[in-house]
Design brief:
The protein is an alpha+beta fold. The chain has seven helices and eight strands.
C-alpha cells in the first residue's frame, strides 16, 4: 500500500538501497521515505546492520599428522556508512567469510602439533580475525569477534589420548598406594620397636623391684631373727613362692597337668640351681 502511495518504511537496524532506473541513488535510513516510483525510483533491497554469526567447521592436519576439525564462530555486521559496498560488492557474504576462515586455519594449524593447537587456539582466533578484518573492510563489513569454540581430533586419536591419560593416572595412583603402604609398614615397625623397648624397660624395672624387695626382706628377717643367714632366708622365700605357684596352678580351671618334684628336697635343689646360675652369670661377667 505504501509503495502504491510512493512511501517506503525502513525498519530499525536496517537500511534500504534506493535505485533510480537501476542505478544506485541513496541509502535510506530507518523511517518513512518518499519513493516516486513513477520517476523510476525503487528499493533494490534491504541490508541488516545487526550482528550476525557464522559457524565454520574446517578440517585440517596438525604438524604431528593428526587430523582435527576446528570450529570457528565469526561475528560480523555491515557498516551503515559503507552500505553501498556491502550491498553491491559481495553476492554471498557468508561464503566469502567461510573461504577466508578456511584459508587462515589451514595455513596456521599445520605449523602446530596437537597439544600446541589446543594451547594456542586464542592466537589462531586472533590471526583469523586480523585477516578477515583486512579483507572484509573493503566490502563494507566489520568483524566484531572471532572465536575458536572447539577443536575436535579424530575419534581414534581422542580414544588413544584418553587411554594414555587413564594409564598415567593409574600409574600415579599405584605409586601413591605403594608409598602409603611403605609409610604404614615403617610406622608399624616403629610402633613395634617402641612397644618392645617399653616392654623390656618394664620387665627390667619389675626385676629390679623384685631384687630390691628380696634384699629388704632378707635384711629385715636377719635383723628380726638373730643367727639366720641370707641363705636361710632365701630358701624360705623360695619355698613360699613354690607353694604359691602350686596354689595358682590348682586354682586355675584351664591349667594343664604339670608334673614337678614335690618334696622339700626338690625346693632345696631348685634353690641350689638358682644360686649356681647366678654365680655362673657373675663369673661370666
Amino acid at each position: 500500500m505504501g509503495q502504491v502511495l510512493g512511501c517506503v518504511q525502513v525498519d530499525q537496524s536496517t537500511v534500504a538501497i534506493k535505485e533510480t532506473f537501476g542505478k544506485f541513488d541513496d541509502v535510506l535510513q530507518p523511517g518513512c521515505h518518499c519513493m516516486p516510483w513513477c520517476l523510476g525510483s525503487n528499493v533494490a533491497g534491504h541490508l541488516s546492520l545487526r550482528v550476525q554469526q557464522l559457524d565454520v567447521r574446517c578440517e585440517t592436519k596438525t604438524k604431528d599428522n593428526v587430523f582435527v576439525t576446528v570450529v570457528a564462530s565469526i561475528q560480523y555486521r555491515a557498516l551503515a556508512e559503507s552500505a553501498q559496498d556491502a550491498f553491491y560488492k559481495l553476492s554471498n557474504t557468508r561464503n566469502q567469510i567461510q573461504a577466508y576462515v578456511f584459508d587462515v586455519i589451514r595455513a596456521s594449524v599445520p605449523k602446530l602439533d596437537l597439544d600446541s593447537t589446543f594451547e594456542q587456539k586464542n592466537d589462531i582466533a586472533k590471526t583469523v580475525e586480523s585477516e578477515l578484518e583486512k579483507a572484509m573492510s573493503h566490502y563494507g563489513y566489520e568483524i566484531v569477534q572471532t572465536l575458536i569454540v572447539d577443536i575436535e581430533p579424530d575419534v581414534h586419536v581422542k580414544k588413544a589420548m584418553n587411554e594414555i591419560n587413564a594409564a598415567s593416572r593409574m600409574r600415579e595412583a599405584a605409586s601413591e598406594k605403594a608409598e602409603a603402604e611403605k609409610i604404614l609398614q615403617i610406622k608399624r615397625a616403629e610402633g613395634e620397636a617402641e612397644s618392645k623397648y617399653l616392654s623390656g624397660l618394664g620387665i627390667a624395672r619389675q626385676r629390679q623391684a623384685i631384687v630390691d624387695g628380696l634384699r629388704n626382706s632378707v635384711l629385715a628377717f636377719s635383723e628380726s631373727v638373730p643367727g639366720t643367714s641370707s641363705k636361710d632366708v632365701m630358701d624360705m622365700v623360695l619355698v613360699t613362692q613354690y607353694f604359691d605357684t602350686l596354689k595358682d596352678i590348682g586354682a586355675s580351671s584351664k591349667s594343664n597337668a604339670v608334673f614337678i618334684p614335690h618334696g622339700p628336697g626338690a625346693v632345696k635343689e631348685i634353690a641350689s640351681q638358682i644360686r649356681d646360675g647366678l654365680l655362673q652369670g657373675k663369673a661370666a661377667e
